[in-house]
Amino acid sequence: MAVLTAAIAATAGVQEIKITGSTTVLPIAQKTAEVFMNRYPDVRISVGGGGSGVGVAALIDGTCDIADSSRSMKSKEIQSAAAKGVNPKANVVALDGIAVIVNSSNRIENLTMQQVKDIYTGKISNWSQAGGNNAKIVVVSRDIASGTFEAFNELALGGGRVRRDALMQASNQAVATTVSQTPGGIGYVGLGYISGSVKAVSIDGVKPSKKTVLSRSYIYARPLFMYTDGEPKGTIKRYIDFVTGKEGQKLVEKIGFVGID
Amino acid sequence: MKRIIVVLALILSNTLAFGSEVDRLIDKLVEKGILTQGEAYKIAAEAREEAKKQEAVAKAETDKISSWIKNTSFKGDARIRYELQNREAKDDRSRTRLRFRWGFDTQVNEQLKAGFRIATGDSTQASSANQTFTTSFDDKPVWLDRAYVIYGPSRNISFTGGKMSNPFYNTNLVWSSDLNPEGIIMQASFPASGDVFASAGYFPLYEMKDDTEDPYMMGLQFGYGGKIASMKFKTAVSYYHYEGLKGGTAEDISPSFEDKGNTLVGGKYAYDYRLLNFTGELTPFEIPMGENRLPVKIYGDYVKNLADGVDDNNGYLLGIKLGSAKKKNTWELGYDYRRIESDAVTDFMTDGSFCEGGTDSKGHTIGIKYAPFDNSAIGVTYIMAEGLGNKKKTDVNTLQVDYAVAF
To answer: Are residues A44 and A117 in the same domain?
Structure first.
């Protein structure tokens, strides 16, 4: 379908790129696409979200040209792609630290990895058990379809199950908003979503920042991908090169992610 | 710089054993100022992804092979036999024969299974897969011995179509153990307190080119197997209904057995065949012998042709077996006596070794087997068979010396 759309667009003199997937990568795709289309009016880029899984599935089905993903493709996804003749190529476009955030009124500044795991799996339910005030912990999480959830689940919980009473949110922004409005709240968001209304805590003494993510000293960090079918070519290559180039990376940093240039 | 990064990425993406050494190399390049930390991160992450992809694709290929292998079981056996026949009406005969069978079963999916087997033998003799060593080493044919599909919608019911292993519980009074019926059958089992089983099938016998009234057999069987204290038993009642045999030309329907005991008139079958058959076995006890326990099995079979006007219509077999020659250094002794009147059963389906096959005969079979290795046995069998005298069968004493291997 993506190929057909591209063919129709090509006959009209416009080349089309369809991007879908991770909501974390979405702002990068949206901003870079906007600037790229201004630069190259012969290219039309449509950008959609839906989550990393949705993007990867669309790439496998041939209904998009680029799949945004905040996690690495799963073995099963790679295998089903191979079965359909799709050769997923990972293009790292940015780095993201997953920041653990608490309400700005919370006096907690640092948590250990074990404490984060215990809080999210339900072993710890009160901030006093983690060195804070006597207050109930309200766990906020991304919904299970999101790449951020999967990445956090893998990096922080080691595959453990998030407690059942966690408030599941559909976006990074929703997590940040909920935590900012809940005194006992704890959540996790991409670095780009840290704002003054929430506090990002250190993990094992390391603050989430560009520097600590790049040096790999901050543990909850991950690359963000734009997957293509094989090595990018033609207009898709022009776009990927733009995103990973100086100008694109400036935009990435401006949005709040860590650049790779 | 860009070229260095591309080359490095290519090298690393082909390094499946990605580990700390590669990370150290990248760190060094960062230290030397050749790569920025961002570039290093990107190269390492993309290389990891590429390695993961290659591993996943390779695993998928391996899984594909291994799941096919896992779902398929190959089976075969080979038996070399020396046979000496002392025949009343003919000269004595000796021959060396080979029976070789090989095939596989494969689980297509949870509900479907398919199987296939080839075997030596004679295309006109369904009841034996023996191939005589003759004609100065010329190549010997193999035949399609079995080919079938089994559909099992639930654990207790299955439908089989094709050329299959005999689906009916039996002894070789009615059915040769080498015979593989062709047709369709439904089988059901109900593991209540014991094993209740039932089979119903349709088996075409001959296709008449200018007629639709083709001869066929319908078989029905109900049985029960169980245990009382330490005694195991199994029993079944069967009904085999042959339609279209009476008046059929024996030479067409059963080319090699046209004159093996059934009553023929002008080369055509004189009677119908409606066989009521009772089969059973009992394992009352086991005899301890060293590390092994030798089961004692007593078995019997009775068949009566219920069709109208048939005089010689009874058959029976009584036997006993001690031990089982399958594992290394185990042995087996067996004896049976049978009497099978001319039209008790169809003569083209019975044991081909007893009185040269067919019906209208009686006699003793005694055998001993020893397994020098696992799944390998040496056996000696002596069959003293005599014709009942009603038709054309005469006395035949047969000595068989076998070496068989199952694999």
So the answer is: no
Q: Are residues A109 and A79 in the same domain?
A: no
**CA nearest A98: which of A109, A108, A87, A113?**
A113
The whole-angstrom distance between A114's CA and the closest CA on chain B is 24
Does residue A189 share a domain with residue A113? yes
A92 part of contact set with chain B, CB < 8 Å? yes
Residues A199, A115 share a domain:
yes
Q: What's the pLDDT tens digit per position in A8-50?
A: 445 556 899 999 999 889 999 999 999 999 999 999 999 998 8
Q: Is the pLDDT of residue B349 over 60?
A: yes
Q: How far is B110 from chain A (nearest CA, A)?
A: 21
Q: What is the mean pLDDT of chain A?
A: 90
Alpha carbons within 13 A on the beta-carbon side of B90: 13
Same domain, A132 and A205: yes
Full-prediction pTM beyond 0.80?
no
Q: A237 Cβ partners below 8 Å, 6+ apart? A: A231
With respect to residue A153, please indicate whether it lies within any of the assigned structural domains.
yes
In this structure, the answer to whether residues A79 and A114 fall within a common structural domain is: no
Q: Is the ipTM of this complex over 0.85?
A: no
Question: What is each CA distance from B25 to A213, B40, B178, B208, B406, in whole angstroms?
Answer: 19, 10, 69, 80, 57
Q: Which residue's entry shows tokens 């992450």? A: B45
Measure A9 CA to nearest chain B CA, in Å: 31
Q: Are residues A161 and A244 in the same domain?
A: no
Q: What is the pLDDT of residues B32-71, one digit of tens each?
A: 888 888 888 888 888 888 989 999 988 888 877 777 788 8
Helix (H) or strand (E) run with residue A210 in it:
helix A210-214
Q: Residue B248 — φ and ψ, nearest 5°?
A: -80, 150
State the DSSP H helix or E strand holding residue B316, giving kind and residue range, or none if neither.
strand B314-323
A124 inside domain: yes
Residues in chain B with CB shorter than 8 Å from the CB of A83 are 60
Domain around A26: 4-96+223-255
Quote the CA–CA distance of B265 and B273 in Å, as a whole number: 15
Spatial separation of the C-alpha atoms in residues A172 and A142, rounded to whole Å = 7
Domain with A24 in it: what CATH number? 3.40.190.10
Domain presence at residue A261: no
Contacts of B59 in chain A (CB under 8 A): 75, 79
Q: Give pLDDT tens digits for B115-173.
A: 999 999 876 666 788 899 988 888 889 999 999 999 999 989 999 999 999 999 999 99
* Domain tally, chain A: 2
pLDDT at A111: 96
Confidence check: pLDDT of B321 > 60: yes
Q: Are A95 and A215 in contact (CB under 8 A)?
A: no
Interface of A with B in 18-77 (CB under 8 A): 72-73, 75
**Minimal Cβ distance to B53: which of A78, A83, A259:** A78
* Residue at A204 is within a domain: yes
Closest chain B residue to A93 measured between Cα atoms?
B42
Give me the helix-helix angle, A75-83 and B37-71, nearest 10°.
70
Report which secondary-structure segment, H or E, holds B251: helix B250-253
Residue A119, pLDDT > 90, answer yes
HSE at residue A84, side-chain half, CA atoms within 13 A, is 17
Do A210 and A103 fall within a single domain?
Answer: yes
